[in-house]
Amino acid sequence: MEARRLYHERVGILEGMAGRALACALLLGVEGLAVSLAFDGGTITAERGALGAVRDWGAWTLRWALASALLFGALVWQKGNTAAAGSRFRPGWLLGNLAVFGMFWTLGTRVYGGEATAGAAIAGWLAAGIGMVITAAMAVARLADWAAFARTTGWLGPQAALAAAIGCAAGLLSWRLWGPVTLATFSLSEMVLGLFRSEYVSDPDSAKLGTSRFFVFISQECSGLEGVGLMLVCGLMWLTVFRSEFRFPRALLLLPAGMVLIYLSNVARIVVLILIGDAGYREIAARGFHSQAGWLAFCAVTIGFMVVSGRSDLFRAVRDEDEVEYAAAPYLAPFLAVMAAAVVSQAMTGSFEWMYVLRIPAAIAALLYFRTRYRTIDWRFGWPAAAAGFLVFAVWAAYDLLMGGEAAGMPVELRNASSGVRVAWLAARCVSAAIAVPVVEELAFRGFCQRRLQAEDFDRVPWTSWNWPGLIGASTVFGLLHGSYWHVGTVAGAIYGGVMVYRGRLGEAVAAHAITNGLLAAYVLATGRWQMWA
User: Fold this and answer.
1) What residues form DSSP beta bridges with 316?
2) DSSP string of 285-327?
3) Which of 89, 160, 252, 261 could cross-link 469 (Cys pair, CB 3.0–4.6 Å)?
4) More confident residue, 436 or 421
5) Which domain holds residue 25?
């Protein structure tokens, strides 16, 4: 009996804190994404000292953090621990996190802009970064809860961090292999490119490959060796932790398969990059695709590795007979599908995102897949939705006018396009803003997040039920998605959440959101303040 009690106590703490750890990771992930998009280590010219360390190790630190979080989250997820924690969220710490994030952003702008070069300024910036992590963690749980979570997860956290560190170190220490591997990547890319272009430019000495219209230099960092090393370490970690669930030695075949796939995906990335540039889309190739395709490929192969290893009878020795659908999937999947479409669209983008329309079919596909689960949701709405929608629009427009500044005007690329292309893009942008986005975002933030922060079994939480952590937490995360307008986005999220609770119908929040976005679209087109669509 004592062993059973300890087992349930162990699992209960693990499940409770798994949800809180996910909330903390989402908050820090959104903040980290904003920082990574705003700051570029290439702007730092210092070769030594603290600034030199930021330039040389900043990117590697981010890679290590992402790999650690991905692996640790996958390990906890594999354990099936998704229940809610018993402790309450603490809004005060969340506000503190936002304040520290603002400090980190301000200091980071000075550091990367060359205005702050003193060691004290850089130390303050790094301290603010550590403060972001601490305040985010304390916002979702107490220190005692985190200590209990660390005890129940055992060595999973340190093992994930160590595995990610080994993978990154392997990428750094394998410089002796970079030369031969880069040459092999060059040769293979040249062979594949020859399948599409009979005439091309090739110079092995300088690693120059392409066509007369567009070419690239395949550096050592583009050899694909880093991805292969990370794939090897992540795969070994996965198979080691869950070794009792796999058939050995056949499960070891997954390792070379994953490594080969990640290497070939890098070759494909190089060839597609050249073909995109050769087709006349030089800016798309050099900007969006070059920066996004590598991580997309790594995430796709890693997730595929986990799915195949967990579901294939060829490799897995133990299978769960009763597989149930994750209750949050119908609420989160459409939003994640739109986010994935946005990443793909940006990968195909130069200075203007022509493929914005991809968000619409992504949303439709996910909504159709879970259509039967939406029959229990009340989609009706009335005058409160219209009032809330108009109110949020008024707040948004007032904030924009108070901020001042000249209207950005229609982007040059869109203005110079043919009338048919321009009208089609604007129509897709308006449809996405006024229909697709309100549905998928309200399902995620009001349907799931606001109720999930109230109880573990969120699907049983009445639509009229609310608490401060749920309302503030969901509204804040929603606001952070709106970039420099995050203040107004947070207020908007609170109003949408309030009108949903007032009438007890998700349809009220969706309609209010749709009215706001529709009015904002008309406002942007009428005034030329396109910065509100940035």
Assistant:
1) 246
2) IIIIIHHHHHHHHHHHHHHHHHHHHHH-TTTBS---SS----T
3) 89
4) 436
5) 2-153
Domain boundary among 102, 120, 153: 153
Contact call for residues 101 and 31 (beta carbons, < 8 A): yes
The model's confidence at residue 364, banded by pLDDT at 50, 70 and 90, is very high
Sign of CA pseudo-dihedral 280, 285, 287, 288: positive
Confidence check: pLDDT of 475 > 80: yes
* Among candidate residues 27, 33, 88, 28, the one with its CA nearest the CA of residue 474: 27
Structure confidence by residue, pLDDT tens digits, 159-175: 778 877 776 776 666 65
Specify whether the CB–CB gap between 235 and 315 falls below 8 A. Answer: no
Is 249 exposed, middle or buried, given 0-12, 13-18 or 19+ CB atoms closer than 10 A?
Answer: exposed
- Please write the tens of the pLDDT for every residue from 36-63: 666 665 555 555 555 666 666 666 676 6
For residues 512 and 495, what is the distance between their CA atoms, to the nearest angstrom?
A: 9
Q: Which residue has the tokens 């000292």?
A: 49
Contact criterion met (CB below 8 Å) for 318 and 244: yes
- Token pair 């897709």: residue: 428
Q: Considering the domain boundaries, does residue 335 fall inside one?
A: no
Do 382 and 523 share a domain, yes or no? yes
User: What digits encode the pLDDT tens for the residues 257-290?
Assistant: 888 888 888 888 888 888 888 887 777 666 666 6
Q: What is the number of H-type helices and E-type strands within the chain?
A: 21, 3
* Token pair of 366 as six digits: 């996910």
pLDDT score of 467 more than 70? yes
More confident call, 246 vs 48: 246
463: DSSP letter: T
Write down the mean pLDDT value for the chain: 78
Residues 276 and 132 in one domain: no
Give SS3 for 498: helix
| CA–CA distance, 151 with 147 (Å, rounded to integer) | 6
For residue 212, the one-letter residue type is S
Read out DSSP for 57-121?
HHHHHHHHHHHHHHHHHHHHHHTT--PPPSSPP-HHHHHHHHHHHHHHHHHHHHHHTTS--SHHH
49: in domain: yes
Mean pLDDT computed over 215-236: 77
* Residues 115 and 203 both lie in one domain: no
449-464 tens-digit pLDDT: 899 888 878 888 899 9
Nearest CA-CA partner of 63 in 163, 132, 143: 163
Radius of gyration (C-alpha) of the chain in whole angstroms: 25
Can you give 215-254 as a three-state secondary structure string?
Answer: EEECCHHHCCHHHHHHHHHHHHHHHHHCHHHECCCHHHHH
Residue-wise pLDDT for 60-104, tens only, equals 676 677 677 766 766 665 555 444 455 566 777 888 888 888 888
Tokens for 16? 């409770």
